[in-house]
Amino acid sequence: MEDTDYALGRTKAEYERLIEQAELLRPLTERMLLGAGIRRGMHVLDVGCGAGDVSLLVSALVGPEGSVVGVDLDGEVIQVAEQRRAAEGIANVRFHRSDARAVESGRLFDAAVGRCVLMFISDPTAALRHIAERVRPGGILAFHEWDARVMTASPMKQPVLARLQGLITRTFERSGAHLEIGAELYGRMLDAGLEPETKPLAEIAVHMGQDDVAYRRWALFAKSMLLKMVEYGLATEAEIHDIADHRLRDELLPARGLIPLSWLMIGQWGRKPAR
Ligand SMILES: C[S@@+](CC[C@H](N)C(=O)[O-])C[C@H]1O[C@@H](n2cnc3c(N)ncnc32)[C@H](O)[C@@H]1O
């Protein structure tokens, strides 16, 4: 049961992009998880775990006395996550294939977390309700999702990146993904019967230029979404290759100032009522 036309694709290159993206978002997500109250000893569910980065981050926060279960709809990405877990010798994480809304577990979790996943689910409020059923009373739900209304690249100083960001967001929009889900999470958590935090964390990942970090980030994004951009008639393959292989490189590699690496990421958490 997947609801949006998953615009990022399910290729090896996309899984590698997810891992690179996770490296860029890691400090933001770690601050969000600590703010939400993820602590040593907790038993945590990570929904839409992808290649496993949030699960592996949580595994370090909960320590050996805690545990993590990562689930994803995509069986292949679960294999990637499992290989990475095994290679790092991490014992307190398990991965398995499951829809976020139908996780089977004998024991209730102390917390459920997720990053960039509710945006792909047609009814995120209903999903929050289902996920909360797997969390103990008084437990935590913490999600890190974007708000793409906030256009981060400067159309004056970074016109190629601004054009690409516009193409990416229009492609997600056509696919049915929720572009403003980060900003909606507070209200959706209230509607799902949760007690959301009134001061969530909102951050944009940024980079100072003169190396290929920002260029790689956006070129890989463009390539993962190329098929859908073309299918939806938003751009031609030649145009995306021209942006990703030439114009973006010319614009971003010599940059001497700030380049956005993400849209606004909103870390919103809340509690399930204690009774
Ligand atoms: C953009 S990736 C993010 C992966 C990971 N959370 C991260 O931040 O690195 C979104 C993931 O959500 C998964 N997904 C989408 N809808 C889902 C659902 N209903 N249940 C479980 N996973 C889902 C996709 O398969 C994909 O792996």
What is the CATH topology classification name?
A: Rossmann fold
Low-pLDDT sequence parts = none
The separation of the N and C termini measures 30 Å
What's the CATH architecture?
A: 3-Layer(aba) Sandwich
Q: What do the pLDDT scores average to? A: 95
Share of helical residues: 40-55%
Shape: globular
Element pattern in H and E: HEHEHEEHEHHEEEHHEE
Strand count, sense and barrel status of the largest sheet are:
8 strands, mixed
What's the alpha carbon Rg, rounded to whole Å? Answer: 18 Å
Q: State the CATH class.
A: Alpha Beta
The ligands bound in this entry are: S-adenosylmethionine
Structure commentary:
The protein has helices spanning 12-36, 53-62, 75-87, 124-133, 159-175, 181-191, 213-231, 237-252, and strands at 43-47, 67-72, 93-97, 109-115, 135-147, 195-196, 201-203, 206-208, 258-260, 264-271. The chain is of the alpha/beta class and 275 residues long. The protein has a single domain (12-271), classed as 3-Layer(aba) Sandwich (Rossmann fold), CATH 3.40.50. Strands 1, 2, 3, 4, 5, 6, 7 and 10 form an eight-stranded mixed beta sheet that branches. Helix 1 (12-36) packs across helix 7, helix 5 packs across helix 7 and helix 7 packs antiparallel against helix 8 (237-252). The model has no long low-confidence stretch (mean pLDDT 95). The site of S-adenosylmethionine (SAM) has 22 residues, from helix 1, helix 2 and strand 2.
